[in-house]
Specification:
2 copies of one chain form a homodimer. The first copy, chain A, is of the alpha/beta class. Chain A folds into 2 domains: 241 residues, Aldehyde Dehydrogenase, Chain A, domain 1 (3-Layer(aba) Sandwich); 146 residues, Aldehyde Dehydrogenase, Chain A, domain 2 (3-Layer(aba) Sandwich). Chain A has 15 helices and 16 strands. In chain A, the strands form 4 sheets. The first copy, chain A, has a 7-stranded parallel β-sheet. A 4-stranded parallel β-sheet of chain A has the order 5-4-3-6, sandwiched between helices. In chain A, helix 10 links the parallel strand 7 and strand 8. In chain A, helix 2 packs antiparallel against helix 5, helix 3 packs antiparallel against helix 7 and helix 5 runs parallel beside helix 6.
Chain lengths: 417, 417
């Protein structure tokens, strides 16, 4: 079938399913989630077989070892996905929560109630676990979902979809609750980005290129996730031992993720006491250092930093370092190069901690802690669908509540205006 | 100057202003609002002169009396605008509100705090009062604003802008807090819709055509406002006197606005008791009636309704009427044709009231009240920037809180992950 017609059909079916999902009781949704978790494990042979096809195809095409590792499934990874669904089942249901209720002078009673968004489009890349995670989170929050995974993982994704849909529908989910774009034709993404009649939101998850394509071409509202050029500023008078642990953790613990630090800013007055030891530790850990001229005095391994470096998310063991005059210069630097994801200050000053938290415009602003905590689980949401770097609708780590909208429920006794 | 360069420059200046506005104390913002209100009245002659130019141009072009009325200013309308600014000054400041704060097992303290969106683009049509309203609401919520009014009102808008900017800056506003696109070139709107580097959100206010253009072409996130195909369903067993008042009010009190009813649905069992008198009252009030075949039995003035009617926002004294089998048919009709703005049921049944409020997907769902209450002032927000018909970020009447985002403030003692 022509994929545009297919998408239209899926959109219509998704809308129908969304009406039913919006009023499903929490118990029904949880039962489906648990059935889906069990089925994933019971049918893991089918999934692993499909995954082996993806892996073989990827190997033939000669993709990198890192990507291959992301793509590959095994019994333990399937168990993790199933466990993820069980955890989502155990979370409180966001739907129906009353966010406020008040009475107007004319006696009208107005309540603001949490409702699902409707139909969510998810566009993502290689990792097949996103298929299960996204399906689980969308279902729990009462939304229908239309998934579009990467072409590398198409066999795995389709196999998992079949298991999720069969087990979910057997447990009472309406047809269309979980759907997938089955073609790997890139044009299908373009068509999806124009499916305003059926999709209420599109959430892209993946590299900067994917996200840019979605933001630039979608007429459906988008929640932008992802890119993080995160800074840590070590203030004059900071506890330098603490600063070292935080700065090391923020860069080295997992450099490939968006909440990792890319730039270290150091107040001139502590540069000499802090940087030599800090940079030696980075160097020993294999971190490539790129610094302003002043930093080069403190370690022989420092390469000159370029203007482009300040704006780059390395996703790697590379760090830019700058010595700054004062907090204002640090704030200026952050305002200029930050992607408004996560920013940290290490300080002992009450006043500068307060200024930093107030003046830095970012989803998460830290005092004396690693930017690596920007994460739905670390924040205590029990789940994460991504980290929003936009200001509209959701900002920072997104859990179930961020997959919802609201409606006003107004109860009267014949009021007219 | 080339308008694209001009827009870039305004965008940059707006971003700078936004950083300052984000940390301005409420008292400073309120002082500026009050100064702006006073200046509008003190300089009303300049504004009225500029408005006379707009009116003369419009008359030459032969625009409709209704549009001319929207365009025309006088001392009392200017006083209303000034009063609006004073009211906004008296509202609580949304910025800095702590929406939640919790401690994690590792001792991290996480707070969710309301912050401004940044720079807001407002694109609107003829009514010059939107210039003042939007400037006031954006300023109070700590946002910079880039205004783009209709070309008909350009002289009035520029005159008011000058008064607002001069008085605002004299009272401490940063340069760039309130700006306007000065060219009436339509290409400037297109350029504005692509100003992602500087604009955090665009809010269009106006007719369906304007809103469609913005939604389809903007890469900046949009809050869609406006179109309302609103229904009132009169249930079996409803208090018919109450139903009559509500249905009359919803259609007739102000047919040109988005919360006015466009379609009346009536349960078959009460059609005979309800419709003849109701339709006569509409007819006497000059309402053109378009109904399904069954309604035509009850009044000779009923014209046949078409499929297109069900989906039309008349903005006029025209009403579509349909007799339905039961609540399910009413819900189906609403799900199919509603723009998800405001929907009402008139009923005495607890169960059906509950079902209607739960199952209807709309920004505001009423039991026994007129849809005309969907309005920021009627809801008690003290202000209104528009009524959102999308599900992302804001839904229904938008007050100051809807012009804000949030950020997470994380305070630690050296936590690493």
């Amino acid at each position: 079938m022509d994929f545009k017609l297919e998408l239209e059909k899926q959109g219509r079916l998704g809308k129908q399913a969304a009406r039913r999902l919006a009023v499903m009781a929490s118990g029904e949704k949880n039962a489906a989630l648990l059935a889906m978790a069990d089925a994933l494990q019971a049918k893991q042979m089918v999934i692993l077989q499909a995954n082996a096809e993806d892996v073989a195809r990827a190997e033939q095409r000669g993709i990198s070892a890192a990507l291959l590792d992301r793509l590959r499934l095994n019994a333990s990874r399937i168990a993790d996905m199933a466990e993820g669904l069980r955890q989502v089942a155990s979370l409180p249901d966001p739907i129906g929560e009353v966010l406020g209720m008040w009475r107007r002078p004319n006696g009208l009673e107005i309540g603001k109630v949490r409702v699902p968004l409707g139909v969510i489009g998810m566009i993502y890349e290689a990792r097949p676990n996103v298929t299960v995670d996204a399906a689980g989170l969308c279902l729990k929050s009462g939304n229908a979902v239309l998934l579009r995974g990467g072409s590398e993982a198409i066999s795995s994704n389709l196999a998992m979809l079949r298991v999720l849909v069969e087990s979910g529908e057997a447990a009472g989910l309406p047809a269309g609750a979980i759907q997938m774009v089955t073609t790997t034709d890139r044009e299908a993404v373009q068509a999806m980005l124009r499916l305003n009649r059926y999709l209420d939101v599109i959430i892209p998850r993946g590299g900067a290129g994917l996200i840019r394509t979605v933001v630039e071409n979608s007429t459906v509202p988008v929640i932008e996730t992802g890119t993080g050029v995160c800074h840590t500023y070590v203030d004059d008078g900071a506890d330098l031992a603490m600063a070292e642990e935080i700065a090391f953790n923020a860069k080295v613990s997992r450099p490939s993720v968006c909440n990792a630090m890319e730039t270290l800013l150091v107040h001139r007055c502590v540069a000499k006491a802090f940087l030599p030891k800090m940079m030696e530790r980075y160097h020993a850990a294999g971190v490539e250092l790129r610094g302003c001229p002043e930093t080069q005095k403190y370690h022989q391994a420092v390469l000159p930093v370029t203007e482009a470096d300040w704006a780059t998310e390395y996703h790697d063991l590379i760090l830019s370092i700058r010595v700054v005059e004062d907090l204002d210069t640090a704030l200026e630097h952050i305002a200029r190069y930050s992607t408004k994801h996560s920013e940290a200050i290490v300080t002992r000053s009450y006043e500068r901690a307060r200024r930093f938290q107030r003046e830095v415009d970012a989803a998460a602003v830290y005092v004396n802690a690693s930017t690596r905590f920007s994460d739905g689980f670390e924040f205590g949401f029990g789940a994460e669908i991504g980290i929003s770097t936009q200001k509209l609708h959701a900002r920072g780590p997104m859990g179930l509540a961020e997959l919802t909208s609201t409606k006003y429920i107004v109860s009267g006794d014949g009021q007219i205006r």
